C-alpha cells in the first residue's frame, strides 16, 4: 500500500466519496496536506482526514476505506503513518472520536487509543473522545 498526501487530482474522487465536508473545505484540506490517500496498484483504497483541535492537537476527523478493502490491515497502516508524521512535526499526542454505536471504537482501542470522555449532541448517540500519546 502507498500512502501519500491528497493532490488536486484526487478532488473529484474525494468529493464523490467524502460527503461529510463541503467542496470548499475539501479544497482547503487538500491544499493544507490534511488528507492522506491510501492506494494500491493505482487504485484508491481509502483516506484519512484530520485537523488541529484547539489549533494545536492533531485530531483525526475521518478514516474510511471502501468496503472491499476493509479488514486487511490497511486502516492500521494508515493511522500508524499519520501518527508517525504527527510525531515528526513535534506533536506528543493525537485525538479522535467515534459514536458509541460504531464498531470503530474497538479499532481505536486496539491501536492504543484511550477513552478520555465524550459528549452528546441532540438526537445523536454519545460521541466518545480518544487520546493517544505518540
Polypeptide structure, described:
The chain starts with a strand and ends with a strand. The protein has a single domain (2-133), classed as Aminopeptidase. The chain contains four helices and seven strands, in the order βααβββαβαββ. Helices cover 28% and strands 37% of the residues.
On the 0 to 100 scale, the average pLDDT is 96
Q: What is the count of β-strands?
A: 7
Strand arrangement, largest sheet?
Answer: 1-2-3-4-5-7-6
Number of helices: 4
List keywords for this structure.
134 residues, alpha+beta, Aminopeptidase, 37% strand
Topology:
Blueprint: E1 2-5, H1 11-17, H2 23-31, E2 35-40, E3 43-53, E4 57-65, H3 74-88, E5 93-99, H4 104-110, E6 114-119, E7 127-133
Parallel strand pairs: 4-5
Antiparallel strand pairs: 1-2, 2-3, 3-4, 5-7, 6-7
Quick summary:
This protein has 134 residues and is α+β, with helices and mostly antiparallel strands.
